[in-house]
UniProtKB/TrEMBL annotation:
Pathway, per record: Amino-acid biosynthesis; L-lysine biosynthesis via AAA pathway; L-alpha-aminoadipate from 2-oxoglutarate: step 1/5
Protein name (Swiss-Prot/TrEMBL): homocitrate synthase
Keyword Amino-acid biosynthesis in annotation: yes
Keywords per UniProt: Amino-acid biosynthesis, Lysine biosynthesis, Magnesium, Manganese, Metal-binding, Transferase
Enzyme Commission (EC) number: 2.3.3.14
Family according to the record: Belongs to the alpha-IPM synthase/homocitrate synthase family. Homocitrate synthase LYS20/LYS21 subfamily.
Length: 449
């Protein structure tokens, strides 16, 4: 403890010192639990399969290869590709990606039939993700098969895939609306037949975290193979469900970049990273090249012609923007809401702890924090930072005074950084050589419109 720090950790200025992350215990770290895989999970990245089912998606070969390379560089464990049975080009692209020699294992996603499996094996993939519908909806309205038939067929296809020496996963579509007893006996049989993984899919996005925990935890007690999970986001639970699945013993999570997929998609790669880094920073930082996230998201957003949503974890344009005055004692960079541009200002002389209002350090993702100071919600700490960035000197009282003027104008209309700056400059100019004597004159010089 330094000489300027009181026994309660508060320094002489009444501030809490900046925390040394290596010394602070993480209150969000996973609960110690032998079944949890929060600190040991794998990603099956499905932008090139589930993502191809997104309304706007059309990936040509070059785009697919660029995305696959970028995901590989990021460090995902598996890359899942559209079934080669889907189209002639899908098959060629699958073969081309297999030949890239990526570190990530390449999977293709096929219906659980011998015909599909045979075509898939020929592409040179490292593994097959087999899927069949088990809910009564799918059994009645899609393939029309009963559970005995599904089990026999699954075992036949699994045996074939295994005989070819590649990985095999068996998954049921719409697992959460399937009969639990049916599902567990089917999975028990495929586990016994030696699959590498079984998969649980929330195809319609109906599951809650608690339901996920219950189903995965129950399944964990029934199979000894790995458990993959796949969550659609129709009710906004896809990231939370993925986290809960890991807590319950799932080993693999399906993601896509920005979550693209059927309807409003699945667990987002970036959102999962945000969730997991809070739980186990060391694992996530050690395994994934987080600084590449924005680049990959931009690449995919451009390919499917969408914008990154403003509320996207990590990369949403305001994900690290602080606006309210009471939050804004953290700044290093300011944000101009009027022109939607960012203005780096260099390091501010603010010694507060960003953790007060941030659970994720933007720097871990190569991102920067912003303080939005040109608004009615601003506070004098944000303005003080701006004053010093403009190279001006003012006492705290003067900063508070000019802050009040900025807030008054911003109460009437939206203001830009330039507006705030001219108020600051005009006030400062009139303060002259003896600022303390000139407050009234300076105030009169402040522009009011
Ligand atoms: C779909 C299939 C799937 C498969 C998931 C999986 C789903 O409906 O498009 O194989 O685990 O959501 O059920 O994406
Ligand atoms: Cu899906």
């Amino acid at each position: 403890m330094s000489a300027t720090t009181a026994p309660n950790g508060v320094d002489v200025a009444g501030r809490h010192p900046v925390a040394d992350p290596s010394k602070v215990s993480n209150p969000y770290k996973p609960v110690g639990d032998y079944i949890s895989n929060i600190s040991n999970f794998k990603i099956i990245e499905s932008t090139l399969r589930e993502g191809e089912q997104f309304a706007n998606a059309f990936f040509d070969t070059e785009t697919k290869i660029n995305i696959a390379k970028a995901l590989d560089d990021f460090g995902v464990d598996y890359i899942e590709l559209t079934s080669p049975v889907a189209s002639e080009q899908s098959k060629k692209d699958c073969e081309a990606i297999c030949k890239l020699g990526l570190k990530a294992k390449i999977l293709t996603h096929v219906r659980c039939t011998m015909d599909d499996a045979k075509v898939a094996i020929e592409t040179g993939v490292d593994g097959l993700d087999l899927v069949i519908g088990t809910s009564h909806f799918l059994r009645e309205y899609s393939h029309g098969k009963d559970m005995a038939y599904i089990t026999r067929q699954a075992l036949e296809v699994i045996e074939f895939v295994k005989s070819k020496g590649v990985e095999v996963r068996f998954s049921s579509e719409d697992s959460f609306r399937s009969d639990l007893v049916d599902l567990l006996s089917l999975y028990k049989a495929v586990d016994k037949a030696g699959v590498n993984r079984v998969g649980i899919a929330d195809t319609v996005g109906c599951a809650t975290p608690r339901q996920v925990y219950d189903l995965v935890r129950t399944l964990r007690g029934v199979v000894s193979c790995d458990i993959e999970t796949h969550f659609h986001n129709d009710t906004g639970c896809a990231i939370a469900n993925a986290y809960c699945a890991l807590e319950a013993g799932a080993t693999h999570i399906d993601t896509s970049v920005i979550g693209i997929g059927e309807r409003n998609g699945i667990t987002t790669l970036g959102g999962l990273m945000a969730r997991m880094i809070v739980a186990d920073r060391e694992y996530v930082m050690g395994k994934y090249k987080l600084s590449k996230l924005k680049e990959i998201e931009d690449m995919v957003a451009e390919a499917v012609e969408i914008n990154i949503p403003f509320n996207n974890p990590i990369t949403g344009f305001c994900a690290f923007t602080h606006k309210a005055g009471i939050h804004a004692k953290v700044g290093i960079v300011i944000f101009d809401p009027y022109h939607f541009k960012r203005m780096p200002l260099g390091l501010a002389a603010i010694l507060q702890n960003p953790s007060t209002y941030e659970i994720i350090d933007p720097a871990d993702f190569g991102m920067t924090r912003y303080v939005h100071f040109a608004s009615r919600l601003t506070g004098w700490n944000a303005i003080k930072t701006r004053v010093s960035q403009l190279g001006l000197e003012m006492s705290d009282d003067q900063v508070k005074f000019v802050t009040a003027k900025i807030k008054a104008l911003a109460d009437v209309r939206p203001i830009a950084i330039d507006d705030a700056d001219s108020i600051i400059r005009a006030f400062h100019l009139t303060l002259g050589e003896h600022p303390e004597k000139n407050m009234d004159a300076a105030a009169a010089a402040i522009p009011t419109a």
